[in-house]
Amino acid sequence: MEQASCFELLEDEWDPIYVELQKFSQAQNVVHISPFTITKNDYDLYEIESEGIHDCVSTLEQCYRYLCEYSEK
Q1: pLDDT at 3 over 80
Q2: Do residues 68 and 18 lie in contact, with contact meaning Cβ atoms separated by under 8 Å?
Q3: Is residue 3 in a domain?
Q4: How far apart are CA 31 and CA 34, in angstroms?
Q5: Number of structural domains the chain divides into
Q6: 9 — pLDDT class (breaks 50, 70, 90)
Q7: DSSP letter at 35?
């Protein structure tokens, strides 16, 4: 049986990762969520970077899920 995060039981709006990513909707192009730097590039893609990592996703939801999967490891 897996342990559930309290944020999995609540709405995404209360998750600190989701809240931080919402800064992109406020015309901010770079967000730092340790250990990642997430940049919204000129093509409206989200680049997720950290030491040894450079991935790209096309939606904020995909970015959120990527970061959540990383935090579960």
Answers
A1: no
A2: no
A3: no
A4: 10
A5: 1
A6: very low
A7: T
Query: How far apart, in whole angstroms, are the C-alpha atoms of residue 67 and residue 21?
Result: 10
* HSE-CB of 69 using CA atoms within 13 angstroms: 6
| Cα(47)–Cα(58) distance, integer angstroms | 9
Per DSSP, helices labelled H in the chain are 6-9, 16-21, 60-72
Q: Give domain status of residue 66, yes or no.
A: yes
The answer to whether residue 53 sits within a structural domain is: yes
- Whether pLDDT at 73 is above 80: no
Domain with 28, as residue range(s), is: 10-72
pLDDT digits (tens, 9 = 90+) for 12-52: 677 899 999 999 887 889 999 999 999 999 999 999 999 99
